[in-house]
Specification:
CATH class of the largest domain: Alpha Beta
Shape: globular
Largest sheet: 5 strands, mixed
Low-confidence stretches: 210-214
Number of helices: 5
Helix content: 25-40%
Radius of gyration: 21 Å
């Protein structure tokens, strides 16, 4: 079973229940991996349809389960809770198990100043593909893939398949910006000012537009209620 790896760019770990969750891209489209293959958009459509219909999702492993060297290696470290194709590739969101290996993976993802592991790699069975017809083309262009598992890996075959975010009790900047604009009623520029400089930055922006402090205080109160 071939595998192709990708990177985890930011790792989001957290949630209201302190779940060890993260997101990233298990595969990136139209990017040649270290095996010389590239994946076309739509290649995962059948796998995703079957997963949603049956409730049985590809496994979450570490390092492709050690390539089957031992039974423990093939034990999942968590579950994938969402997968979808977008304009970039195969977006994935998963939750690590509250087990020794799951907690170990979580710790490696959250290390500072950089994660100790941030690669993602897919294990799959190629169903449809075209072979290269010219020397400068990919070895294979994969059109349909039966996705078996997605692993956290140290060395991804596709350098762009990475963890995008790890949630660990705090919001990512993107999530906070969305919450400020969607739920608290700030404009995007106001949200960015608040995120960068706090209430003082937002006040300076509002003062420049002749808004009173009572309006700012009211919005900050609404923000606190929203966050709670």
């Amino acid at each position: 079973m071939p595998n192709a790896a990708v990177e985890l760019r930011e790792v989001k770990l957290a949630g209201k229940d302190d779940a060890m969750t993260f997101e990233g891209y298990g595969a990136v489209f139209n990017n040649i991996d270290s095996y010389g293959d590239t994946i076309q958009p739509g290649a995962f459509a059948d796998t995703l349809a079957v997963a949603r219909r049956s409730g049985r999702w590809p496994a979450m492993l570490m390092q492709h389960g050690g390539y089957g060297m031992g039974a423990d290696d093939m034990t999942p470290v968590g579950i994938w809770t969402d997968m979808a194709e977008d304009g970039k590739g195969l977006y994935v969101n998963g939750t690590l198990a509250d087990t020794p290996r799951g907690r170990e993976a979580y710790a490696l993802l959250k290390m500072s100043p950089r994660p100790a592991i941030d690669g993602l790699s897919i294990g799959y069975i190629a169903k449809e593909w075209t072979a290269r017809s010219k020397p400068d083309e990919p070895r294979r262009t994969l059109k349909k893939i039966d996705l078996v598992e997605i692993s956290l890996v140290t060395f991804p075959a596709n350098g762009k398949a990475r963890v995008q975010a790890v949630k660990a009790g705090e919001m990512s900047e993107r999530e906070l910006e969305k919450l400020l604009v969607r739920d608290a009623g700030f404009s995007r520029s106001e949200a960015l000012a608040l995120m960068r400089e706090g209430a003082a930055g937002l006040k300076a922006m509002r003062d420049a537009g002749d808004s009173g402090n009572h309006e700012l205080a009211g919005e900050i109160r609404r923000l606190i209620e929203t966050l709670n």
